[in-house]
């Protein structure tokens, strides 16, 4: 294979004194045509800055290459000096030679333009095609990334597509110029496990079809086991290990690589579930949800809508003290809407939500996915933690400050953290703050909505351990919403699987994960990526979730269930 990219002793810094503030410190690697290199490391390791330096996008974020060289071999065989080139020359390689996919497609796509117009614009900029020819090329590339009914979806806006579909659009935009190198920066982090598997399968197929090389950036070393030819592990801006994938995974040499591999949650098909809790049917639930229905009107205005999105349709479950119920499912399945309805953050159309008030006037509290967005950056920790208590009628006095110090200690943070601000903490520490804040009112139930999905694997493991310890100490009940089946296996006593707004399977975690009965649950579990499944091939699936939009007045028929065990119920699949 011919050498496509050569990086030697790359150094990148930020700020006025970029040499003194280096975050990439002497990185070297080669990439051959058609090869996939995975760059792995935790937040702050320098992996994304390294990737952004390859086409000098790092320049637009305040970064500067302070040393080393990046040489790209172009299609005509000439060597292009990335580090020494001017901006006009760099624009010639961006898109054409080096394509880029970013982590969050919703922030990369323009919300006021259709996806067809946005892809056609990329076609015009990279190929010079105009009008109808550009639209046709845009349609061709949407077909290429396996978007079903691509012609009609050309007129969709980004918000009308699921997360997985939006990421396919981003891949399509990157492919319009047929780049010889595709850089994918955490492209599946925010996606559900089935969608993640599809994106990985799609990238593998496109690589086979086009012969392009790929750099795949991730903090999850288990994710790349099936697609990478080589793995480069970074820590604190330095490459600590680099070798063929099998060698790194099976015989890691550096202690940091060994640490990363130990921290990866390994999905064991239900054989590693918690055994510290036994459900007692006679115990009074702390939360009981019965026939919950949440719908959002669509079309025709609010006074007389033409129909409604059946976001949650007839969901029922209960939760007892000291128990974790995990709700899993794809984006749009209704799991987060269910949680928000329980908290009163969205209105329900019908259904009963009964919560005990044994320890608090507000027995249910919530921890959100993004801790930084959940904390007001203008307030210090003391003010942030006092907020829920003051809103509940308590005084900001010595007793309240003692409660804060007590909870900070419980989540592993020092008392002097009270005078610090959110930006002065790491991501894992900020999530610990959010957990402590949620416990200020001594709730019976904590709702955790993707509360660990944005964290590095080692930080994630520590936060999960913390949650389990707090649950034991305070007899907390958790409603744990996640798309990561390995994490669910580690923390859940019971699992509810949601699909298209309905629970399709619910029961004991071991029963559901080890012996799934519903076809959708089987599909979820089969899609879980793992180091042990590196030889597994995921075929691209374009199966669509049924539309949740129903005509006005529509009521679905009653669900029919069958018992699959003592605590394991499955919805009949002929139930709409």
Automatic annotation (TrEMBL):
UniProt xrefs under SUPFAM superfamilies: P-loop containing nucleoside triphosphate hydrolases
Keywords: ATP-binding, Cell membrane, Membrane, Nucleotide-binding, Transport
Cellular component terms (Gene Ontology): plasma membrane
Annotated stretches, region: Disordered: 556-576
GO terms of molecular function: ATP binding; ATP hydrolysis activity
Xref: PROSITE patterns: ABC_TRANSPORTER_1 (PS00211), ABC_TRANSPORTER_2 (PS50893)
SMART domains linked to this entry: AAA
Membrane topology note: Peripheral membrane protein
Residue stretches making up the ABC transporter domain: 7-261, 287-525
Predominant location category: membrane
Chain segments annotated as transmembrane: none
Keyword Transferase applies: no
GO biological process: peptide transport; transmembrane transport
InterPro entries: AAA+_ATPase, ABC_Ni/Peptide_Import, ABC_transporter-like_ATP-bd, ABC_transporter-like_CS, Oligopep_ABC_C, P-loop_NTPase
Annotated Basic and acidic residues bias: 557-576
Location within or outside the cell: Cell inner membrane
Family that this chain belongs to: Belongs to the ABC transporter superfamily.
PANTHER family on file: DIPEPTIDE TRANSPORT ATP-BINDING PROTEIN DPPD, OLIGOPEPTIDE TRANSPORT ATP-BINDING PROTEIN APPD
Protein name: Glutathione transport system ATP-binding protein
Source species taxonomy: Bacteria, Pseudomonadati, Pseudomonadota, Alphaproteobacteria, Hyphomicrobiales
């Amino acid at each position: 294979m011919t050498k496509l990219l050569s990086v030697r002793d790359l150094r990148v810094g930020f700020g006025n004194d970029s040499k003194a503030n280096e975050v990439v410190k002497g990185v070297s690697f080669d990439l051959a045509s058609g090869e996939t290199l995975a760059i792995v490391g935790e937040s702050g390791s320098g992996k994304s800055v390294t990737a952004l330096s390859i086409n000098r996008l790092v320049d637009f974020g305040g970064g500067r290459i302070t040393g080393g060289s990046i040489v790209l071999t172009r299609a005509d065989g000439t060597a292009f000096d990335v580090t020494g080139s001017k901006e006009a020359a760099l624009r010639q390689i961006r898109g054409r030679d080096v394509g880029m996919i970013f982590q969050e497609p919703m922030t990369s796509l323009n919300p006021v333009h259709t996806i067809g117009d946005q892809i056609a614009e990329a076609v015009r900029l990279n190929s010079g095609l105009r009008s109808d020819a550009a639209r046709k090329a845009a349609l061709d590339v949407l077909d290429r990334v396996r978007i079903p009914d691509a012609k009609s979806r050309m007129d969709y806006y980004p918000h009308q597509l699921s997360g997985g579909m939006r990421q396919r659009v981003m891949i399509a935009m990157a492919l319009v110029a047929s780049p010889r190198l595709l850089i994918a920066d955490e492209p599946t982090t925010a996606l559900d496990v089935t969608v993640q598997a599809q994106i990985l399968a799609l990238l593998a197929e496109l690589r086979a079809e086009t012969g392009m090389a790929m750099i795949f950036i991730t903090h999850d070393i288990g994710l790349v086991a099936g697609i990478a030819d080589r793995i480069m592990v970074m820590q604190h801006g330095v490459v600590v290990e680099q070798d063929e994938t099998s060698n790194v995974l099976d015989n890691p040499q550096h202690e940091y690589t060994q640490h990363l591999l130990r921290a990866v949650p390994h999905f064991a098909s239900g054989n590693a579930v918690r055994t510290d809790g036994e459900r007692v049917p006679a115990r009074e639930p702390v939360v009981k949800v019965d026939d919950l229905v949440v719908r959002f009107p669509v079309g025709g205005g609010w006074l007389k809508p033409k129909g409604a999105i059946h976001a949650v349709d007839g969901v029922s479950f209960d939760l007892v003290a000291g128990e974790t119920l995990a709700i899993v499912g794809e984006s749009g399945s209704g799991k987060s809407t269910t949680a928000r309805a329980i908290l009163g953050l969205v209105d329900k159309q019908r259904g009963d939500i009964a919560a005990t008030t044994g320890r608090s006037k507000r027995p249910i509290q919530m921890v959100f996915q993004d801790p930084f967005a959940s904390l007001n950056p203008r307030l210090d920790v003391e003010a942030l933690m006092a907020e829920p208590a003051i809103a509940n009628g308590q005084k900001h006095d010595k007793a309240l400050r003692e409660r804060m110090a007590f909870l900070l200690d419980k989540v592993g943070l020092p008392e002097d953290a009270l005078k610090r601000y959110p930006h002065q903490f790491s991501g894992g520490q900020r999530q610990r703050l959010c957990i402590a804040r949620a416990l200020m009112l001594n709730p019976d139930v904590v709702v955790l909505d993707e509360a660990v999905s944005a964290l590095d694997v080692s930080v994630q493991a520590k936060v999960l351990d913390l949650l389990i310890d707090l649950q034991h100490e305070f007899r907390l009940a958790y409603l744990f919403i996640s798309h990561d089946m390995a994490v669910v296996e580690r923390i859940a006593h019971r699992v509810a699987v949601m699909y298209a707004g309905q629970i399709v399977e619910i029961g004991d975690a071991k029963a559901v994960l080890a012996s799934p009965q519903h076809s959708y649950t089987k599909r979820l579990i089969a899609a879980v990526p793992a180091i042990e499944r590196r030889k597994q091939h995921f075929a691209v699936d374009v199966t669509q979730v049924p539309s949740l939009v129903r005509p006005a007045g529509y009521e679905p028929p009653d669900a029919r269930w069958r018992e699959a065990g003592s605590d394991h119920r499955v919805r009949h699949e002929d139930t709409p």
